[in-house]
Amino acid sequence: MSDIVTVIADKLCSFDREFDDCSGYAKVIITALDAAGFVVVPKDPTREMLHAGITARTTGWGKDAVANAYKAMTTDYRAMLAAAKSPGDEPGRG
Q1: pTM
Q2: Alpha-carbon distance 47 to 70, whole Å?
Q3: For a surface tag, which of 9, 12, 41, 55 has the fewest beta carbons within 10 Å of its beta carbon?
Q4: Can you tell me the mean pLDDT for 61-81?
Q5: If we measure between CA atoms, which residue out of 41, 52, 27, 47 comes closest to residue 84?
Q6: Maximal C-alpha separation, the chain
Q7: Would you say 8 and 26 are in contact if contact means Cβ atoms under 8 Å apart?
Q8: Contact in structure between 58 and 52 (CB atoms under 8 Å)
C-alpha cells in the first residue's frame, strides 16, 4: 500500500500543478484531520494492527464475555488505530 502522504500529495498535484510542495500540503491536511480527532487508516488492518487487537482482546478478559464485549471491542478498535503509522512515526507507533 502506498504511503498516505504520497497518495494525498499525488491527488493534490493532479488537481493543480502549481502547488510547489504537494507533500507539505498533504502533511498539513493529515495534521488538521488529527487535530479534529480523525485518523487515516488502511481499509484492512496491518499485521501490527491485528497483533495489537489480539493482545488487547486477551488482556484482562473477564468471565462474563457479554458484559465485557463493548469494552473489548472498543479496546480492540483503539489498539488497532494506535498501531497504525502516521507520517513521520516509527513503525508500530500511532
Answers
A1: 0.55
A2: 23
A3: 55
A4: 67
A5: 41
A6: 60
A7: yes
A8: no
- Give the sign of the dihedral formed by CA 69, CA 52, CA 49, CA 29: positive
52 vs 24, which has greater pLDDT?
24
State the CB neighbour count (10 A cutoff) for residue 55.
13
Residue 6 has pLDDT above 70, yes or no: yes
Could you tell me the three cell numbers for 75? 479496546
Q: CB count, 10 Å around CB of 40?
A: 15
Do residues 68 and 61 touch, judged by C-beta distance below 8 A?
yes
Angle at 50 between CA 75 and CA 70, to 5 degrees: 25
The answer to whether residue 3 scores a pLDDT higher than 70 is: yes
